[in-house]
Amino acid sequence: KYIKNCAYNTITAYYKCTKKDILASPTRMQYLRKLLNEAICVGIADGAILPKNFEKSTIEELFNQKNLDATSSMAMDVLNGKPTEIETFGGFLTRLAKNYKINTPISSKFYIEMKQNSLYSNTTRILFAAALLLATALVIVSFTSCGNSAGSQSLKEKAVTRENVISNDSTSVIFFAGGCFWGTEHFFKQV
Asked: Does residue 106 contact residue 31 with C-beta atoms inside 8 Å?
């Protein structure tokens, strides 16, 4: 079953497709056969005893079933953005193949590309979550700092202060409306 899944789970997850989609594409069918053949070679090297015509009987078993709209659980994981079994069906197989000095170019290609897509997908989710968290924090800080930025000074006291500044100082006075931008008033007081 592991040998079959190294091919079937990998190709359906890679293409996010069903059995029917594989049958409809000569390229995908060819990749399935190559994935299966590579897994068979590694399995035999590792001591698996397989019946004659294992490749042919496995292909027939996959596609002679009634439900051609079915796909693998690994393909469903990819479609649902969940972690996959690519290490089980791709990583382990390619590492074992290296130990036996067996060339597995198709299995390696699918494994590397799916691993990269998985890393990209996870990184994207993490960055999105971080950005969302940062935006939420900024909104909370913004709303909590929108109160009276001059403290408890009343409007009348502010007007008296402004008049005193204007009448007692020969320099020009500029008033900035900072609103909820909590750093604006503090920054311009420093100038």
From this structure: yes
Per-residue pLDDT band at 102 (split at 50, 70, 90): very high
What are the structure tokens assigned to 32, written together?
């399935």
Cα 140 to the center of its chain, rounded Å: 27
User: Residue 84 in 3-state DSSP?
Assistant: coil
Measured on CA atoms in the order 176, 182, 185, 188, is the torsion positive or negative? negative
Distance, in Å, from the CA atom of 190 to the CA atom of 51, rounded to the nearest integer, reads: 85
Show the tokens assigned to 33: 């056969």
At residue 189, does pLDDT exceed 80?
no
Q: Is the per-residue pLDDT at 121 higher than 60? A: no
pLDDT of residue 120: 47
Residue 72 makes CB contacts below 8 A (sequence gap 6+) with 5, 8, 9, 12, 13
CA 101 from centre of chain: 33
Q: Give 191's pLDDT tier (boundaries 50, 70, 90).
A: low
Distances (CA, A) of 109 to 37, 81, 156: 15, 21, 75
Q: Quick one: which of 64, 66, 46 has its CA closest to 3?
A: 46
Q: Does residue 142 surpass a pLDDT of 50?
A: yes
Task: Look at residues 84, 85, 86, 7 and name the one whose alpha carbon lies nearest to residue 43.
Answer: 7
3-state helix, strand, coil in the chain (%, to 5): 70, 0, 30
What's the full length of the chain, in residues? 191
- Separation between Cα atoms, residue 37 and residue 77, nearest integer Å: 25
